[in-house]
Specification:
A seven-stranded mixed sheet has the order 1-2-3-4-5-6-7, covered by helices on one side. The protein has a six-stranded mixed sheet with strand order 8-9-10-11-14-15, covered by helices on one side. 22% of the residues lie in helices and 27% in strands. It contains six helices and 15 strands. 40% of the residues are buried. It starts with 7 loop residues before the first strand and ends with a strand. The structure holds zinc ion (ZN). The site of zinc ion (ZN) has 4 residues, from loops.
Length: 209
């Protein structure tokens, strides 16, 4: 994708969609796999498609980290445009569909902002592998939050954020279970070395030098 798009390269396999600033979506490309992690805020779909088209990329799969609207906002539009498969964390799926109300303050957000569901979608759980990315249980921010891991890259969704060269928690008021979130953060980072890619904050090489 060198020189053909505005999509920012983090490594040879990982790209950050600049159109998704505010709630980043990442593109992972390895071998024949072309995967998006998350789908950003409602309304970002057309600019994401423009950015991907400029880069000549057609994602085959969209992996969702959790039920928040700034992560599921364009899964329907993107999956339709690219005929891409959508994968949603099993335990968060009832909140994504609206079958269950999101806990706490997010109940209101869910009631105010309706997100289109893709025509077809699947669920996945911890340990599942889709196109070379492995789902890692990371509950706390939401009950069913999943991170996605490959060799030297960890897409963390909202399990935590980065600021400068620091890892910081997501805002307290957005957490479903703060203690679980902390445990998940420690577990995700425990044996990891490579690029951390958060939805909020910039990619960070880990561990710090
Ligand atoms: Zn979130």
């Amino acid at each position: 994708m060198k020189g053909v798009g505005i999509t920012k390269a983090i490594t040879h396999a990982v790209y950050q969609l600049e159109s998704t600033r505010g709630s980043y979506v990442y593109l992972w490309r390895q071998g024949s796999n072309t995967i998006l992690v998350d789908s950003s805020l409602p309304g970002k779909g057309p600019s994401m498609i423009a950015e991907l088209d400029a880069a000549g990329v057609h994602p085959q799969k969209i992996l969702i980290t959790h039920y928040d609207v700034d992560h599921i906002g364009n899964m329907a539009m993107l999956s339709e445009h690219y005929s891409a498969e959508v994968w949603i964390p099993q335990e968060d799926a009832p909140y994504v569909t609206g079958e269950k109300a999101r806990p706490g303050i997010k109940r209101m957000i869910g009631a105010m902002i309706k997100v289109d569901m893709p025509k077809a979608w699947s669920t996945l759980g911890a340990g599942h592998e889709v196109g070379g990315l492995y789902a890692v249980a990371s509950p706390g921010h939401t009950p069913g939050h999943l991170a996605y891991r490959a060799d030297q890259v960890l897409f963390v969704g909202d399990a935590f954020r980065t600021r400068g060269d620091q890892v910081i928690p997501s805002p307290r008021f957005l957490a479903w279970d703060r203690d679980l979130e902390k445990t998940s953060r420690a577990r995700l980072l425990g044996d990891f070395a490579g690029w951390i890619c958060p939805a909020h904050g910039e990619p960070l090489a880990w561990p710090p030098l």
